[in-house]
């Protein structure tokens, strides 16, 4: 069965988001208050443990099936010279993922995450969005569905992407979803110089102008300006929500995939953690618009779920403290 068989199915899924389990959240919050530490002293680690308890629906959350999924897609807009690297690198990096040689192979292993790579029609780049919608309705639904199907039975889902040119698509998605000049949302990506970044802003401006009258729904924004790997991440975020699986978002591109969904229903990010704030300048703005506070800020700007995978180690630390510590009663220590 196709997860998102029609635009209506996608829109219904986005309009009917389940909430976290309040009882499990309350139980985890109570437990944090009994652990042998001054209340609140583990800071954000406490919040992360309670967040996971709510979405997993258990007082003591766990990561037994932590899964990183990397979606890959090719972009027609690369013809406009918007990346420092050639489009061929996308398929070459997918081979590198399979061979185990990419950053995400090392970082997923370090974080104890299984890694799945989902290449989406790499021989068929999306259309250049300055000339036509990036995807047809069928192509976009198919990429969204591929995302949903990749979620599986994970208990923590870490999402990432590979697609040369996709920081341009991401800037267009952010601008279409939240407004603001394209110059605010573009950045060097893989390493453009200042002149390249200016051209990238012009390309985004052209794309927004071409599609302006149609950028009125999450689906049309994704379809016209996004890419297959971006729609794959969006579909995975939405499907994970319906299975109450917590998600860790990666950098600028992985976060921009959620922007169109959030423009239609801001509650979509409630089951998402931001793994890190990337060095791509638009990311900090995007996180502010989504109301997400990144776990890490390491000046990373790679993508591939690399920052989210590093953050998964912090999430494991939050769970270890939450589940492993003694309570005041167990340790026979006087409370405050
Ligand atoms: C070798 C290599 C590995 C990568 N892994 C992720 N990206 C990242 O760079 C791309 C986005 O930047 P832009 O929009 O400038 O093309 C995406 O593929 C992203 O995942 C890579 C880029 C390169 C060159
Ligand atoms: O923030 C990111 O995800 C990013 C930044 C630059 C290039 N690729 C990815």
UniProtKB/TrEMBL annotation:
Gene Ontology terms, MF aspect: nicotinate-nucleotide-dimethylbenzimidazole phosphoribosyltransferase activity
InterPro entries found in the cross-reference section: Nict_dMeBzImd_PRibTrfase, Nict_dMeBzImd_PRibTrfase_bact, Nict_dMeBzImd_PRibTrfase_N, Nict_dMeBzImd_PRibTrfase_sf
Keyword tags: Cobalamin biosynthesis, Glycosyltransferase, Transferase
Pfam short name (any one): DBI_PRT
EC annotation from Swiss-Prot or TrEMBL: 2.4.2.21
Reactions it catalyzes: 5,6-dimethylbenzimidazole + nicotinate beta-D-ribonucleotide = alpha-ribazole 5'-phosphate + nicotinate + H(+)
Enzyme class: transferase
Any GO BP: cobalamin biosynthetic process
UniProt xrefs under Gene3D superfamilies: 1.10.1610.10, 3.40.50.10210
Active site: residue positions: 304
Source organism superkingdom: Bacteria
CDD domains xrefs: DMB-PRT_CobT
Keyword Transferase: yes
Pathway(s): Nucleoside biosynthesis; alpha-ribazole biosynthesis; alpha-ribazole from 5,6-dimethylbenzimidazole: step 1/2
Key word Cell inner membrane present: no
Purpose: Catalyzes the synthesis of alpha-ribazole-5'-phosphate from nicotinate mononucleotide (NAMN) and 5,6-dimethylbenzimidazole (DMB).
Protein family membership: Belongs to the CobT family.
Protein name from the UniProt record: Nicotinate-nucleotide--dimethylbenzimidazole phosphoribosyltransferase
Phylogenetic classification of the source organism: Bacteria, Pseudomonadati, Pseudomonadota, Alphaproteobacteria, Sphingomonadales
């Amino acid at each position: 069965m196709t997860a998102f068989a029609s635009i209506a199915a996608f829109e219904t899924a986005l309009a009917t988001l389940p909430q976290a389990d309040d009882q499990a959240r309350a139980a985890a919050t109570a437990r944090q208050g009994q652990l042998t530490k001054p209340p609140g002293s583990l800071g954000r680690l406490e919040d992360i443990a309670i967040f996971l308890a709510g979405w997993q629906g258990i007082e003591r959350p766990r990561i037994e099936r932590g899964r990183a999924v990397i979606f890959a897609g090719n972009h027609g807009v690369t013809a406009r010279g918007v990346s420092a690297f050639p489009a061929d690198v996308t398929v070459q990096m997918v081979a590198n993922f399979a061979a185990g040689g990419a950053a995400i192979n090392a970082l997923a292993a370090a974080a104890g995450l299984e890694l799945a790579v989902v290449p989406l029609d790499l021989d068929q780049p999306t259309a250049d969005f300055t000339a036509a919608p990036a995807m047809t309705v069928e192509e976009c639904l198919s990429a969204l569905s591929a995302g949903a199907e990749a979620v599986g039975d994970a208990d923590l889902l870490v999402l990432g992407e590979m697609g040369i040119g996709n920081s341009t698509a991401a800037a267009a998605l952010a601008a279409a979803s939240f407004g603001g000049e394209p110059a605010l949302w573009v950045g060097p990506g893989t390493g453009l110089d200042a002149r390249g970044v200016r051209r990238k802003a012009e390309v985004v401006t052209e794309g927004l102008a071409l599609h302006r009258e149609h950028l009125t729904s999450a689906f049309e924004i994704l379809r016209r300006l996004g890419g297959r790997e971006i729609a794959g991440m969006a579909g995975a975020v939405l499907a994970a929500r319906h299975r109450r699986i917590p998600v860790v978002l990666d950098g600028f591109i992985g976060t921009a995939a959620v922007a169109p969904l959030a423009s239609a229903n801001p509650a979509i990010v409630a089951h998402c953690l931001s793994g890190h704030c990337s060095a791509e300048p638009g990311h900090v703005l995007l996180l502010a618009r989504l109301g997400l506070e990144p776990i890490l800020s390491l000046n990373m700007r790679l993508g591939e779920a690399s920052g989210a995978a590093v953050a998964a180690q912090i999430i494991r630390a939050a769970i270890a403290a939450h589940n492993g510590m003694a309570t005041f009663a167990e340790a026979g220590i006087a409370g405050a």
